[in-house]
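User: I'm new to structure prediction. If I give you an amino acid sequence, what do you actually give back? Let's try with this one:
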Amino acid sequence: MVWLVALAAGLILYWIYPRQLFLLIGLAVSGVVAVSVWHLYLHQARQAALDDVSVSAGYDGERRCTVTQPVAIEIMNTGNDTLEAVTFELVGRRPGHGGTLYTETVDNGVVVPPDGSWTGCLALRHDGFRTPAARDEAHSLDWSTTLTSADFR
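Assistant: Good question. You get back a string of structure tokens that encode the predicted 3D arrangement of the chain. For your 153 residues, that looks like this:
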């Protein structure tokens, strides 16, 4: 949408001021550079926010969690802002094998203060398992997480 407006404005300016073609090209290049710098800034700010959060998962062998919620999740916030929500990918793999037996995208609306952590238990969805037989192996899987987004206050 923005590109269409810019193109229309450029064509109108070219028809009105055909001799200022170099000015028009300079404005277009300046606009592209400005948008690129803005995108780079947003990407760096998002990456910095993700660097302040860590999520770990593991099968709870100490039995703090229940049979219906067997995976312990720990979310740590090392940043200066309060964490309001986090989204991560939970993956379970059989030890020594490369294949994934469980995968789920988890949206967690937990609030974690600066330099704080939160620990809780997670129920495993039946449709997250690759095969029905894999449900019986949940206790022996290697659990890992990949953080995809973090929202701060």
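You can read the tokens as a compact description of the fold. Here is one thing that stands out. The domain at 53-152 is CATH 2.60.40 (Immunoglobulin-like).
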